[in-house]
Structure formats: C-alpha cells, structure tokens
Design goal:
Elements: E1 2-8, E2 14-23, E3 26-32, H1 38-59, H2 63-83, E4 85-93, E5 97-104, E6 109-115, E7 119-129, E8 132-143, E9 146-155, H3 164-183
Antiparallel strand pairs: 1-2, 2-3, 3-4, 4-5, 5-6, 7-8, 8-9
Length: about 190
C-alpha cells in the first residue's frame, strides 16, 4: 500500500512524501520536489538571449549570439543532469541496510547503500543557518573501533529540505524498522 502526504520544504515549496510498505521490515520513503517550471526556465533563457542580442547589436559580433545559445544549452544540460533533483528516496530494509537514491530531472539516478551493520542510528539534527534553525535527518554510522562512537554522519534529503513535520514521519518509519533489528534475535 502506498500513501502520499503533502508537506512543505524549509523554503516553503510544496513537497510530497510517499510511503510504501513492502513488508514488515522493508519500507520505502520518497520525497518528491516540485517539478521544474517551464515558465521560470523560459524566463531565464529569454533573459540570457535578450542580453546577448543587446550585446550583438552593440558589438555587431555574431559570435555573441552563438556563445549565448551554446552557454544556455550547456547550462541547461548541467542543471538537469547534476543539479535539479526531482525525488530523494530511502529504502530501509531491516535485514540488509538503507539505500539512499537521488533521481535527477534528466532521469539519472545516484544511489548509495549503507549496510545495516554500519548503521548506528537515524536521528533528526538541528543546525543554525542564516539566523534560522533548520532540521535535517541523518544516518549515524557506527565507528568500527569504538562501539559508542560515530564515524560519519550521512545527511538525507539535502535537496528537498523537508520541514520538521515531514522529517518526523520519515524518522518514525525508520525507527520502527531499526527497533525490530534491536529486538530480533541476532543471527550469526
């Protein structure tokens, strides 16, 4: 069963949280960002091209127009392929680990897998950014040398930046599965 709820990001943009329960110990949590607005994209392109046309009229150098078109296209490709993320998801599998996936606007996906033996905890941290308190969800990785220690902090949903109410939902889902791991008999 899949459920979708609407929330807002730290900047106030509408985002959606999709929760899908695959089994008792396997859950998928995905935060979808607003899709790229064609209007804002067209506005930027027009602004760049109008500026280039103005320069062309002043300098009478046709290279200016070619350069503007080239820079806009390259910029767009870089933005869609490396910057604009449409969805960030967590697949939490109790017995295996946590898979973190970012899906870009171009269709490209980047995935990281963290084995459950490395996961110490999933927590909500707070940070102060420009006189504003922001919250973020992160995975604490177990320090192999020190059972009490944390070797690394892996922040989640860095692009969508959900507000606290949304993070709490994701946090609860993760904790339910992590708690099962604590109570489950340790298999060798």
């Amino acid at each position: 069963a899949m459920e979708e709820r609407r929330y807002r990001s730290a900047s106030g943009a509408p985002i959606a949280l999709r929760r899908r329960q695959h089994s008792a110990s396997c859950r998928e949590l995905a935060v979808r960002c607003p899709r790229l607005q064609l209007r804002s994209l067209s506005a930027v392109t027009c602004a760049v091209w109008l500026a280039a046309y103005g320069l062309f009229v002043l300098s009478e150098n046709s290279m200016v127009l070619s350069a503007a078109i080239f820079i806009t296209l390259i910029g767009l490709i870089i933005y869609l392929h490396f910057v604009k993320i449409d969805q960030e998801s967590l697949l939490v599998i109790g017995s295996l680990g946590i898979q973190v996936t970012s899906s870009y606007a171009s269709g490209k996906e980047s995935t990281t897998f963290i084995e459950m033996s490395q996961v110490k905890d999933v927590v909500i941290n707070e940070a102060i950014h420009m006189q504003k308190v922001i919250y973020y969800l992160c995975i604490l990785l177990q320090d192999p040398g020190d059972p009490q220690g944390v070797s690394e902090v892996v922040p989640l949903f860095q692009s969508s930046k959900p507000r606290l109410d949304c993070l709490i939902e994701v946090y609860k889902s993760c904790q339910e599965i992590l708690e099962q791991r604590m109570t489950a008999p340790q298999s060798s």
